Model the fold of this input.
Amino acid sequence: MLSRVPPMGFNTWNTFGPDIDETVILQTADKMVELGLKDAGYEYLVIDDCWSERERDAVSGKIVPDSVKFPHGMKYVSDYVHSKGLKFGMYSCAGVRTCADYPGSFDHEYLDAVTFAEYGADFLKYDFCYHPDTSNGPLLYRRMALALRNCGRDILYSACNWGSDEVNTWIRSAGAHMYRSTGDISDSFVSFRDIFLSQIDNFAYSSPACFNDIDMLTVGMYGSGNVGATGCTDVEYKTQFALWCMYSAPLMLGCDIRKINDFCLDLVKNPRLIRINQDREGRPPFIVTKHSGGKVFCSVKIMSDNEYAILRVNLDDSEHRLYFCLEDIGIPAATGKSLMLTDAFSDDRSFRCGEIYADHLAAHDCRVFIARIV
Ligand code: GLA
Done:
């Protein structure tokens, strides 16, 4: 199965937008290995929109790579990415044009799937701009799913219709391995908070084989690049990454990893957070306490091997006290059981907690524990 656990990788859009070329991709591939990101699990290197010529080849009907941006063609780029032990991702769209007005795959699904297979692609992000009004979203996504499944190569299918047509109710049946459920992220606290909160009731639909994609991470952008906005603080990036990990969202890095700072590199390589994200059971967390309109909450994810992940997060703009009762997790006091908590951000800090846990969280901050019942 291609998405037994949430896919992990890098996508060009957040930082580079249209300014992509062979050099950027090759250097990013090098850095993914050098910085240990590949070893941490980031395996897909995905080229987003703006990689092709403006029109298909008049004779073959194929999409053609931009000859200035990619002078050696896509197979060359893909071979390089593969030579680094990484996987290679491409982008297209279910409409007649992509969102940035390049050729889309509408009515060319099988030809394009075979073209991507010829490039050696392992991943396809499939957008939703410029589809004919008379067309049917589920059918368009099914069409590309079947094209990919019959193109001669295993290609992970990343649907991107931004949550239209109640996508979570049908996209799994359409064959996608992950699906964007919201509009585009920008690099600000408000953007990622609102994207996350809009999906908090939908993660029950997300599980192995088809994960809810709440967009590429902005961790490390600090307001620069294509979707750079106000930028985020280090505390906010920590919270963004914790939310994505806890809720089994695909982890697609979006910053310029050639320039990533030590704080963000350590954050996105945090082995405990990644373990929570990649847990093979892929269960959605349940909420044990919430207040302030749902912006301050504690949730628990039951993991494999009898471990539990606990997220305590404050998405409000002022400090809050937050508690949880072991009773609410499913550990009644009469059992005499307690929890051994290990801080996911500094695993030398383990401590025992009985009946209730309470502390204060600064605005926009979070705390994550991995717990065992003892
Ligand atoms: C849409 C998608 C983005 C990105 C752009 C490219 O907006 O949601 O993630 O792929 O298109 O044009």
DSSP finds eleven helices and 18 strands in the chain. The pocket of alpha-D-galactopyranose is lined by residues 13, 48-49, 98-100, 127, 160, 162, 184 (CB under 6 Å).
